[in-house]
Amino acid sequence: MTIPETRNPGWRAGASWKSAGERRFHVDHATAEPLLQRLEGVQKSGNGWRAKCPACGGTSRKVTIAERDGKVLLHCFGGCKAIEVLEAVGLAWADIMPPRHWPESPEERRRMRQAIREAGWASALSVLALESAIVQIAAGKVLRDEPLDWNDYCRLVKAEERIAEARNALVEVRQ
Fold first, then answer.
1. What's the chain's Rg over C-alpha atoms?
2. Judging by DSSP bridges, how do beta strands 63-68 and 15-17 pair with one another?
3. Which sign does the torsion angle of CA 157, 158, 159, 161 carry?
4. Does the predicted model carry a pTM greater than 0.70?
5. 74 exposed, middle or buried (CB, 10 Å; 0-12, 13-18, 19+)?
6. Is residue 139 over pLDDT 60?
7. Could you give the CA distance from residue 94 to residue 26 in angstroms, rounded to a whole number?
């Protein structure tokens, strides 16, 4: 069965049908519009919408949809997974979320790798600051001849594990 190529009645700039008889959108930015057009009982609710769930059915509006921070948020209070809701109306995540843009030039890729590395270092340093405070507190108790209770001991072991992980993140392993 071939689906004829048609234009979405709610078409707007940034969203269009894919050709070759396949009903797919291409979006330049995250938009819930293709999903909202296929759901029943859509009602504006706060900063988003509520609608009947096409996956689990029923008469109540169990699905919530919102657009925030460049993303489409989707939740079914009936327990359906978001992908099940999308598939029930013939959509996929790619139909409502824009494609990721990857660095193209070697210089862009190098800068991105460096930014990721530096973010990892910042995170590791933050962990080291917190966990060293835990070690310092435990050392103070030991120096005052105060025993470490079981919770203190477990937290000290956790601090040791996190410090080791942070150390590994800071040290580049070259092979």
1. 25
2. unpaired
3. positive
4. no
5. buried
6. yes
7. 8
